[in-house]
Amino acid sequence: VKIFAPNIEQRDVVNHLKGSPAEEKRNVLVESARLARGNIQDLAELKVGEFDAVIFPGGFGVAKNLCSWAVDGKNCTVNEHVKSTLQAFHSAKKPIGLCCISPVLAARVFPGCEVTVGQDKNVDGRFPDAETASAIAELGCKHICKDVSESHVDKANKIVTTCAFMCKAPLHEIFDGIGTMVEEVLKLA
């Protein structure tokens, strides 16, 4: 297992204690290294032949830094290194795991694929970003409704997705859903 991140400037920096933007600048690779405790490489150096699968975490950073979904929605652009990594794993017929908001990366790069970001309706207030499912469908992909503890496997494309924090759920349920995604990715590897 190795961890990679693009060597780019973050779109912005948020002070999560205050919930407001901060004036500082940060680099995605440097910030990712902080979270990974230093054991990380530039995404540009990833060689698909050295790995059995790839998994992209989610989080708002994906929507702001790995693509421009946070600003442009379904008209977003995907970072070139992220896009080429996804395409390389897909071309090599190796599994791709995506959770939280990151299934939009697949929806943008692989028209016609199947993904989940949870539900397409805000059921009981648990899915406040349910409109993401409609945007995925507008991109020509099929959104599959799943609960937070489940994942979806697009067998034709070897893409496994789960909604994670796209659902307002207890952490243990989010953990379970991510666990099913990882299990399914490993089965396909």
TrEMBL record:
This is GAL3A protein. InterPro entries: Class_I_gatase-like (IPR029062). It comes from the Eukaryota.
